[in-house]
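Supplementary Methods. Inverse-folding protocol.

Structures were first reduced to a discrete structure-token string of length 292. This string, shown here, constituted the complete conditioning input.
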């Protein structure tokens, strides 16, 4: 009896992260891509099976390993499965604000990047993107480190870094995050604003490293912690969890609940009930005292 092939599935969305045009997750068992081009970079990792593809008429093959596949914009390529079980892949379509088109030639020469660190960074970026719109600041931070690693592969050197660095940049970023707890800020906006304040461009990865060195955690984790603290105060003041979530800067109540549980150990609703019980207990005690 022939084995039943797994069903092909596709999931795709446009995240609210500058530079990422599309996220594409798929399992294919029989599908073969015809020759085509993209106007974006395609950054792919394979999670199962093997894929065979031609780029600029030269064939390549990749499977589950530490390899990352990078296909440049405007260059003809195709793709197909080479096993009965098909293959699973995750793809990020990156626009030219992440990688300039002038790096196309280097990508055509070497589309398979054997780099465990890069693969882990791409995997981490996909995990952050899967969390949804409320965690876009984390995704922006992870994308900056993916971009840095890709730039190193394609140019043979680190991405250019200039301007101020170190503790002063970290302190200024913390002040900026403290002032924007609810409304938030993108990583690029923070880098640009601090560059103007400090008299030179502050590269995003440089800024994140400086902040982690100074405070022991990345900026997105610091901002999430500040939002949780804000939500705690609101909940204890009697604000409903759904309203407290938005007022504290979270996307919605589910977004608050996910992070609140990690930080506090219980759900926002249960936390609010403890505050309500405490207030009612104090009020009852005061009433008894007034009658005595």
């Amino acid at each position: 009896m022939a084995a039943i092939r797994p069903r092909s599935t596709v999931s795709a969305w446009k995240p609210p992260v500058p530079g990422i045009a599309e996220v594409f997750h798929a399992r294919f068992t029989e599908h073969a891509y015809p020759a085509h081009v993209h106007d974006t970079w395609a950054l792919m990792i394979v999670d199962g099976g093997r894929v065979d593809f031609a780029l600029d008429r030269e064939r390549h093959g990749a499977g589950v390993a530490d390899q990352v596949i990078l296909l440049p914009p405007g260059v003809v390529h195709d793709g197909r499965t080479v096993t009965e079980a098909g293959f699973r892949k995750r793809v990020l379509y990156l626009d030219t604000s992440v990688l300039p088109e002038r790096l196309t030639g280097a990508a055509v020469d070497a589309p398979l990047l054997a780099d465990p660190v890069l693969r882990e960074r791409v995997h981490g970026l996909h995990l952050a993107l899967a969390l949804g719109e409320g965690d876009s600041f984390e995704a922006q931070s992870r994308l900056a480190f993916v971009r840095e690693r890709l730039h190193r592969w394609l140019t043979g050197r680190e991405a250019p870094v200039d301007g101020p660095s170190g503790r002063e940049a970290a302190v200024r970023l913390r002040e900026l995050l403290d002032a924007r707890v609810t409304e938030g800020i993108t990583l690029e906006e923070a880098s640009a604003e601090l560059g103007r304040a400090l008299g030179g461009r502050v590269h995003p990865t440089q800024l994140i490293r400086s902040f982690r060195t100074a405070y022991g955690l990345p900026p997105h984790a610091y901002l999430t912690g500040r939002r949780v603290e804000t939500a705690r105060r609101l909940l204890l003041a009697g604000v409903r969890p759904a309203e407290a979530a938005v007022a504290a800067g979270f996307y919605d109540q589910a977004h608050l609940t996910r992070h609140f549980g990690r930080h506090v150990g219980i759900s926002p609703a249960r936390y609010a009930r403890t505050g309500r019980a405490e207030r009612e207990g104090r009020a009852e005690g005061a009433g008894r005292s007034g009658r005595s």
